[in-house]
Amino acid sequence: MKDPYDILGLPRNATEGDIKGAFRKQGKEHHPDRNPGDEQALQRFKEINAAYQILSDPKKRAMYDRFGAAGLGGGGGSGSPFQGMPTDFSDLNVDGIFGDLLDALGIRVGDRGDVRVEIQLSFDEAAFGCTKTISYDRVTTCDDCSGSGGVPGSELSSCAACGGRGKVRLQQGVFPIHIERGCSRCQGSGRVVSEPCRTCNGVGLCSKRATLEVDIAAGVEAGSTRRIEGKGNLMKSRRAGDLELLVGVKPHQFFRRAGDNVLCGLPITFAQAVLGDEVEIPTLEGKGLLRVPPGTQSGTTLRVRGKGIPKRVMGGRGDQLVEVQVEIPTNLTERQKVLVEELAKELGEAVQPQQRTFLDKLKDLFN
Predict the structure, then answer these.
(1) Domain of residue 280, CATH code
(2) 5, 141, 299, 349: least CB-packed within 10 angstroms?
């Protein structure tokens, strides 16, 4: 029986991390998927795995350190120094050559093939809807081999990794539980090409730039998503994933959104606030008119019905909310100052409602 420490190239005082690192490095190098048809590599891989099963288990390692192979019940047999030892791929973190190639395309193990793309809309496009042309990268069928993975005219042969079954049988851990999974070498087909396509390296898939026209519904909000079925990455032996659009909305020069309403500010003069006026305002559809009532206070919000965002569910539109901001004149001329002083004398004790409330509160505070 070969010494498991020698097989993994480890000293007797190797730590758990040393053992796991040596197994990953050597196991990946001699993995059957990387060495199809190489019996020596397969035998070496079995030895590496068996050695790891001994040294990674504290009880087995202690028994081996004390009694050698006898402490493991012999562990010998024809054909392999550790025949009968379970095979455990859980720490190897490798899915074969095919998995490595898919990883290079951006596809991970267990990936459903979905692709996420961010799409930027203007404020008006989000409000009223639009049609956008988007471009993105997706994995799809290789044109040179039409998805076969082989050079046109090349023959298929039985997969050496699974023996043509399309599945490999694994035993996890120390328990006699066998698990079958699809072969990563042939992707479950049981057949491999004799001469791989140079464009896709035998995968049958490659990354391409796709262009798609997408209709955006009116009233879409920033942060919302839309899923388009079958427009994501094409996966071997399964349907293509979906394209998920993540919507972003650029800020507007005048407006901001609050649900189905739009908000904007409106500066008016002191005279307009006192006497009232009809002023021009911006709306989502262009210019509009707004009546400012006499005596309007700064900070008052005026409502324009039906000039907001189209409602996606109930129909109709939200409102436009206009926040009035009274501008106080500065840098007055001497005549203007005189006129303001005369106005103040004319008003006399006619204190404005907001001022009266403030003065009343002061009296209550000090009385």
Answers:
(1) 2.60.260.20
(2) 349
Per-residue pLDDT reduced to its tens digit, 274-295:
999 999 999 999 999 999 999 9
What is the torsional sign of CA 66, 67, 73, 78?
positive
Q: Which amino acid is at 194?
A: S
Is 129 within a domain?
no
Query: What pTM value is reported for the model?
Result: 0.57
Asked if residues 53 and 46 have their Cβ atoms less than 8 Å apart, the reply is no
∠ Cα 14 17 20 (to 5°): 95
Q: At which residue do the structure tokens 């043509």 appear?
A: 164
Q: How many residues does the chain have?
A: 367
Residue 133 burial class via C-beta count within 10 angstroms: exposed 0-12, middle 13-18, buried 19 and up: exposed
Tokens representing 25?
């490095």
Report residue 102 as tokens: 């898919």
Q: Which residues make beta-bridge pairs with 196? A: 150
